[in-house]
Amino acid sequence: MRLDGRKPDQLRPLTLIPGFISSADGSVLIQCGQTRVICTAMVEEKVPPFLEGKDQGWVTAEYAMLPGSTRTRKARGGSKPDGRGVEIQRLIGRSLRAAVDLQKLGPRTITLDCDVIEADGGTRTASISGAYVALALCCDKLLRQGLVQENPVIHQVAAVSVGKVEDIAVLDLNYPEDARAQVDMNVVMNERGDFIELQGTGEHDTFNEADLQAFLRLAKLGIKEIMAAQTAACTETNAQEG
Amino acid sequence: MRLDGRKPDQLRPLTLIPGFISSADGSVLIQCGQTRVICTAMVEEKVPPFLEGKDQGWVTAEYAMLPGSTRTRKARGGSKPDGRGVEIQRLIGRSLRAAVDLQKLGPRTITLDCDVIEADGGTRTASISGAYVALALCCDKLLRQGLVQENPVIHQVAAVSVGKVEDIAVLDLNYPEDARAQVDMNVVMNERGDFIELQGTGEHDTFNEADLQAFLRLAKLGIKEIMAAQTAACTETNAQEG
Amino acid sequence: MRLDGRKPDQLRPLTLIPGFISSADGSVLIQCGQTRVICTAMVEEKVPPFLEGKDQGWVTAEYAMLPGSTRTRKARGGSKPDGRGVEIQRLIGRSLRAAVDLQKLGPRTITLDCDVIEADGGTRTASISGAYVALALCCDKLLRQGLVQENPVIHQVAAVSVGKVEDIAVLDLNYPEDARAQVDMNVVMNERGDFIELQGTGEHDTFNEADLQAFLRLAKLGIKEIMAAQTAACTETNAQEG
Amino acid sequence: MRLDGRKPDQLRPLTLIPGFISSADGSVLIQCGQTRVICTAMVEEKVPPFLEGKDQGWVTAEYAMLPGSTRTRKARGGSKPDGRGVEIQRLIGRSLRAAVDLQKLGPRTITLDCDVIEADGGTRTASISGAYVALALCCDKLLRQGLVQENPVIHQVAAVSVGKVEDIAVLDLNYPEDARAQVDMNVVMNERGDFIELQGTGEHDTFNEADLQAFLRLAKLGIKEIMAAQTAACTETNAQEG
Amino acid sequence: MRLDGRKPDQLRPLTLIPGFISSADGSVLIQCGQTRVICTAMVEEKVPPFLEGKDQGWVTAEYAMLPGSTRTRKARGGSKPDGRGVEIQRLIGRSLRAAVDLQKLGPRTITLDCDVIEADGGTRTASISGAYVALALCCDKLLRQGLVQENPVIHQVAAVSVGKVEDIAVLDLNYPEDARAQVDMNVVMNERGDFIELQGTGEHDTFNEADLQAFLRLAKLGIKEIMAAQTAACTETNAQEG
Amino acid sequence: MRLDGRKPDQLRPLTLIPGFISSADGSVLIQCGQTRVICTAMVEEKVPPFLEGKDQGWVTAEYAMLPGSTRTRKARGGSKPDGRGVEIQRLIGRSLRAAVDLQKLGPRTITLDCDVIEADGGTRTASISGAYVALALCCDKLLRQGLVQENPVIHQVAAVSVGKVEDIAVLDLNYPEDARAQVDMNVVMNERGDFIELQGTGEHDTFNEADLQAFLRLAKLGIKEIMAAQTAACTETNAQEG
After folding, report:
1. What sign for the dihedral angle of Cα F2, F7, F9, F15?
2. I need a labelling partner for D170 at 20 to 30 A (CA). Which of A59, A72, A130, B29 fits?
3. In which element (H, E) is residue D109 found?
4. Who among D190, D195, D202 is closest to A200 (CB)?
């Protein structure tokens, strides 16, 4: 029995509100319990310098927390780079590039902005799962506009955290669990159940192969459920647009 | 007849969702037509260096736009300071300090963060009107917690933009109007109808005293209506908390 | 009777030394009582990116205070942006663009640098009034050099501060008055008496429409006198150059 | 058969030169094939603000590449933060904190600086393995100086990269292999074979559980060998010092 | 015969206007031909961290050029540090510390700000010679105020440039000479004719010992003349103050 | 008799290890007693903006100290520019440009990176003497590759420090001597014995012409010896490459 009454293999209540930001090319508000992230996808008709003339596109991500998203005000980034945020936005970018055929995208950049408006643990995995929806809706729009011929989205991507708390493997840690976790692992998968990223950290303790098996089993369960919610959100939106 | 069908003295539809961010000490989502701003108030039990030992508190503000809030992605601030944002956050801070008795607040700082999630003109005045609600809810909480003896909020503050578009004085400009406005004026008032700030700019044209009278008449009308909505939002929240 | 013996509607002694910096394309040392600002205008044969290919020029401004300009040394700007300075230089830029026909200027940029060498209140309005002289002398030079066909300066621009001190409306506040002012308003006008910018701030108090009328009456008087001094400075210089 | 003639489970030639920097409190030059990193440990008798008064120490890391360490000159960091470097130095810091009992260290900070002087793949894992030696030598010195009563180093830590290249799982990738790797995984372990960090990335491809098993088997082999070299380097130095 | 008609051993016309900035603790406008620098000395009652508790003061310098001081507008410093300016302000600081007994100064800092308002070569040596006057006037004021018991200024310091232009050794180069100089040397001396700093640079050519002798002879002549002007400026001011 | 037993005119033991960094176009590890600097030369096929279209190349330098190079950890540069480092890297760049015919180099840039791995005084002169070797080896490689027709290196350049310690003129100061030196002078010469740079500083004392003669005599002796070591290092390398 967990702090908030969940079973070890139970996700927090999950809600996806697609189209939350009407100015963006794709957007969603993802809510995993008290963790809430606005994810937007914005298209720019240019590529970074290292891709110029290579006839492919790029997908990148930025991650930030609003100052009021934590109980103690979080100062905005800016001149002082925040190492944790840099690490997270690189993870989001790599994960979502695994969803896309960059040739099919053509010479344009999609930037996925993940702005945490309330933080209660698991903001990086919520960002990845939400960014997928924003990206998919954005690519649907590119298709409708005739800017791409084929859908550049070739895989579905979702993420969840798992960890060991009081010697028990649990799924989708909230902040009180995360703060006391012995081990914390973020798992990013595609719709085939293959791994895109696996990041396990044992700062308070270490973990062995049996722990790892338990973590991966929970992660698969959770990601399957998240993917169902992603699919529903995208389908609903396309029904309205189509 | 205006671009969006409004009359010259008509506000855009206005919605205030108090308590939008549960981690913050006070918060609201303010929506003025397509312009949407998350305003949060956060308390820190310290004051800036220039007030140390002076037995009073401080109120300050920060303003930012999310990258997806405009049709063309807006790069995040950071190393390059954005002059417009600096100007706006100084205006918000000055305006809201006029609402508060800093002695009654005691030696603590309230930071008002205004994060624009969708921008369609009038983001600075929406930020001020929303920040007032976040500030008032935050001070109500300080009172309930017994951290202050008397409510530090001594005036109600709201703001609206007025301007001249196609030679007609209009209230609450949206972005298409703002872009073609000959004159743009932001008016901040308190509940007695006195001016806190008056900022008129005639970059495309100039204005005379007759224009000024017309602007101020419209601003008073608009601010009265906004104050009614602010009061409703605060009352509703306090009914729930109380 | 004011602190320095002036009447409420009396300007401080005003001196303009045109051509103070011989390396600049236009320059003046403006002295308003103890407030002294070096204003220079420099031409660059390029425009900012957002104007490329648009067949017009640009006028922009920068404002800074020398470290020795205040009784307590003022640290130089640099990595830490100074919000007040940003706000002021944006005001100067907007005000002076109202003096110029940017098409007539052609695809070049004039930068107006206002460096305060001694500060005793009213540095932003002194900067605007001085920057006009630097700009006008610079455009006279462009005409003499045949780089422009018609004079791009189409309006005269000057500024002055007004405010309420000890419940009396006064003109051209010095620093001791400014520090205790209930209300402070900066007014920028052209030669027709129309407003370009109007910025009133009531941080210590608020103001009503009667106050506003009193402020505007004083501002008109002051600006008329400043414009006479500007005209004399420009005429004298052109007599020497011509 | 690999590009450089190694077998899939074969490390590159490994050399550790302890005491390479005599001004540092602990140091080593680690060479893994053509990858060479100078690792130093420096003691400061203070802790970061968040640990003040908590009666424990801190271990942190910084990572940088010398401009001449790559075939194309790598610009120094500085005003533009380098996301990859931030990510790496956070990984090094977390990994080495798992080696230390921060209470036994007492209220001081050990900074582990890893400066890559030649880069040929695997610089982050070489940095971790080298940083362990610098840290251990530094703590031996603290013991000899009587600044700590018990050795704060409670675990041995080493790291290696594994990956999939041309569909084969291989150990300790050099740069040409890394550039074409389908999957890249960094594994950090302690002397008991438990995991401290596990970071697998499949940017060009994904990986499944069978791949994961193969990676972990190779990593164990490699880390065992690296730990033997670490032990030899520390023993040799202590024999000289003792 | 030089470009501007001077003899090889002739200084440019030199003017010193002491007390140019009345808000500063000491100040001068130094004019060497077309080169003009505002030098101010400001006292702060604190010392840098490395001198805390050491019962001595500190003298430091900052150097900047106004944007209009050169024919092509010079961008302000700030985020991009300007190497040349850093080098110059370190030279000014070291030179003026040689004028002062830091124990007699007591635990306070004098900052010497040298702001070039017009640049025509030799700005760093003009800054040193001017900064000495600002420093001396500032210390006279400290004495009059009773903040120091003895005058901390124990040496007179002045500087001049010398160089080789068209194979001739010349004194006090203006910008056209400096731009074509084969060798450029800055010499800082005290009133006894001893060297404080000697910086010779042969970027376009090299120099030998005979050249060096010729340079030093010219420098002595020039510095003697500058010191006479410094003394006159200080005496005149003290006569007025006394 | 000096602190470390050397005679006044004796260099510290000098070792040059050419080719120390195999990824660089030219490199050396220079060791002068306990002072050790890695110098690399890297070629980029472009020139800085101010040389575009001028048909010549550029040589520039960067200087940094590793955090572990001093007994007290030296924080890395970055956002806060380090004035001393800026001053040093400008000196290195100017000195080495005197070694090269920039026309013969063609439109490319050689960057000389000097990274101090251990600091015991004289790091700037060791950097210059080492940078010459890296530069010479780099130009030899350009010749072998046929990228230049003639060797751009037209002069040999080396540097040494001299100073006055306990009233005695000494050569090649180590850190304990440097810290107590009355006068410190850095001398850069070419193979003809002509001066390229001469920088004498008397922060703790001043110096006269007799001192200067003594310094220059010692510097010549030292530089002759350093040049012999440079020549040996280059010859040895070319024998291997050739």
Report:
1. negative
2. A59
3. strand D109-118
4. D195
CA dihedral (B220, B224, B230, B231) positive or negative: positive
Q: Is the CB of residue B30 less than 8 Å from the CB of residue B130?
A: yes
For E161, the token pair is 């440039």
How does DSSP assign B47-61, residue by residue? --GGGTTSS--EEEE
Residue B164 pairs with which residues in a beta bridge?
Answer: B169, B183
CA C85 to chain centre: 14
- Helix segments in C71-172, DSSP class H: 83-97, 102-105, 123-144
Main-chain dihedrals φ then ψ at residue A56, nearest 5 degrees: -145, 165
Beta partners for F65? F116
Q: Is-contact F62 F111, C-beta < 8 A?
A: yes
State the DSSP H helix or E strand holding residue C113, giving kind and residue range, or none if neither. Answer: strand C109-118
What pLDDT score was predicted for residue C47?
A: 96
Contact B200 C195 (CB under 8 A): yes
- The token pair at A120 is 């209660």
| Beta strand segments in chain E, E | 14-18, 26-32, 35-44, 58-65, 109-118, 157-165, 168-171, 183-190, 195-201
Q: Which pair of tokens denotes residue F89?
A: 């890297």
Distance of CA B128 to the CA centre of its chain: 1
The DSSP element (H or E) to which B16 belongs, if any, is strand B14-18
Sort strands F58-65 and F35-44 into parallel, antiparallel or unpaired.
unpaired
Residue type, A126: A
E78 close to C (CB below 8 A): yes
Please give, rounded to a whole number of angstroms, the shortest distance from the CA of D177 to a CA of chain F: 17
- Which two three-digit tokens encode residue C214? 């009193």
Q: Among residues E85, E64, E94, E89, which one has the least CA distance to residue E198?
A: E94
Helix/strand/coil percentages in chain D, nearest 5: 35, 30, 35
Q: ipTM value, please give it.
A: 0.94
pLDDT at position A125 over 80: yes
Q: Which residues 6+ apart lie within 8 Å of C53 measured at CB?
A: none
What does pLDDT average to over chain E? 94
Mutate to test the interface with A, among D72, D94, D198 (most CBs of A within 10 A): D198
F43, β-bridge pairs: F110
pTM of full prediction above 0.95 = no
Structure-token pair, residue D147: 């600044």
Would you call B156 an interface residue with chain C, using a CB distance cutoff of 8 Å?
no
**pLDDT for the residue F79:** 42
* H or E, element range at B229: helix B209-241
In this structure, which amino acid lies at residue D213?
Answer: Q
CA B51 – CA B49 distance, rounded (Å): 5
Q: Which of C90, C98, C206 sits opposite B202 (nearest CB)?
A: C98
The pLDDT tens digits of the residues spanning E156-206 come to 999 999 999 999 999 999 999 999 999 999 999 999 999 999 999 986 889
What is the C-alpha separation between C187 and B180, in angstroms, rounded?
23
d(CA A161, CA A187): 6
In chain F the domains, ranked by start, together with CATH numbers, are: 14-241 (3.30.230.70)
Q: What is the DSSP string of B187-228?
A: EEEETTS-EEEEEEE-SSS-B-HHHHHHHHHHHHHHHHHHHH
Those residues of chain D that have pLDDT short of 70 are 78-81, 203, 242
DSSP state of E22: T
Taking CB atoms and an 8 Å cutoff, what residues of chain F touch D79?
78-79
Full strand arrangement of the beta sheet holding E195-201: E168-171, E157-165, E183-190, E195-201, F195-201, F183-190, F157-165, F168-171
